[in-house]
Amino acid sequence: QVQLVESGGGLVQPGGSLTLSCTISGSIFRYNVMGWYRQAPGKERELVATIFSTGPKKYADGVQGRFTISRDNGMDTMYLQMNSLKPEDTAVYFCNARAFSGSEFWGQGTQVTVSS
Predict the structure, then answer these.
(1) Are 90 and 113 contacting, i.e. CB atoms less than 8 angstroms apart?
(2) Rounded to whole angstroms, how far apart are CA atoms 84 and 105?
(3) Which residues contact 33 (CB under 8 A, 6 or more apart)?
(4) Using CA atoms, how far apart are residues 90 and 113, in angstroms rounded to an integer?
(5) Phi-psi region of 66 (alpha: psi -120 to 50; beta: other; left: phi over 0)
(6) Are 66 and 84 a contacting pair, CB within 8 Å?
(7) Per residue in 20-74, pLDDT tens?
């Protein structure tokens, strides 16, 4: 069974930084697209960033220039480096992996709270 395990969430002050990690069981090479999504209280889940196995990356407008998505194939891990965090970035962050077969998998989520 595929498992995606997120870590790295926590409480940070506005302007601070956090790095989220998502480690996937099995080989990361099975997955064509991996991404980070977030869901704030009372809001729908939204896309934050995606990274394709061939390298291209996409970001939501609100995080462009502040967040960086990357993947370490040797570690079967995806990262989200978040800088200049704002209170509106507060949400549960989920990692997502979409296999070449079309199957899609989600992590359990990690809470990020930006507050002074």
Answers:
(1) yes
(2) 29
(3) 50, 51, 52, 53, 97, 98
(4) 5
(5) alpha
(6) yes
(7) 999 999 888 888 999 999 999 999 999 999 999 988 999 999 999 999 999 998 8
| Residue showing tokens 């939204």 | 46
CA 68 to chain centre: 10
DSSP string, 26-55: S-GGGEEEEEEEEE-TTS--EEEEEEETTS
Q: How far is CA 84 from CA 34, 42, 98, in A?
A: 23, 24, 29
Q: Both tokens of residue 66?
A: 């502040």
**Hey, which bits of the chain come out as E strands?**
4-7, 10-12, 18-24, 31-39, 46-52, 57-59, 67-72, 77-82, 91-99, 104-106, 110-114
